[in-house]
Amino acid sequence: MLGLSGLDLTHLAYLEQKPEKGASKGQLMTAIDSVFGKMSEEERTSFTAILTEELLKRKPDVEGQLEEHLSRLGWSVADGTLIPIELFDAAELKDFPAESRQDMLKAARRFRDGDLSGAISAACGAVDSVTTKVYCEQNLGDPGSASFQERCRRAIGARGVIPALESELQNLGWKNEDVIPFKKNFEGALNQGAFVIQTLRSSMGDVHGTKPILRPLVFDSIKWAELLIRAIG
What we know:
Distance between the termini: 39 Å
Oligomer: single chain
Number of domains: 2
Strand content: under 5%
């Protein structure tokens, strides 16, 4: 598993395990720590991700234990995949609609591995899955004939997201003069977020080949996708 995960095993070649006077487990672990310590930050990220996933393939029952340890280092484990907590926690992923969960997990994995254009495409695919479901359930027509932003806007309207939000805020005791501008701006934010993702998908996605890309905007697109999925789903 160490070799599959990118650790150069030639640095451990001098350690030979044999019944008598062989290398101990402690010596092996110390040597592994030494090689890991010399890795770059990018190499460590890749090594940790691949090693965790290889381990979970063999022993899926240790996911809970690994989750506890890795969470302290900024990682979360979801469906056998290591993802950065900065994107979303595994517990949050469980709340996503089933049709979008795998695409969001794919977006997080690609972001982690540096496939930024692919991450945008996967995040958009997750939103597409949710809006397509709404189009079918509400008989809104062919989702393929509408732009990404239009699909999101119509799905939000069909699901009654904004009226439901208004009612919930009023139940909390909000006054109308506070509710009205808030819901208006919230609806506008969702619409503008959809436009942002739509634009990034066209300009930075991998549909028509890899293009120049900005990592912070990819992170933003994934978070916008999460917000839209939660609102629509």
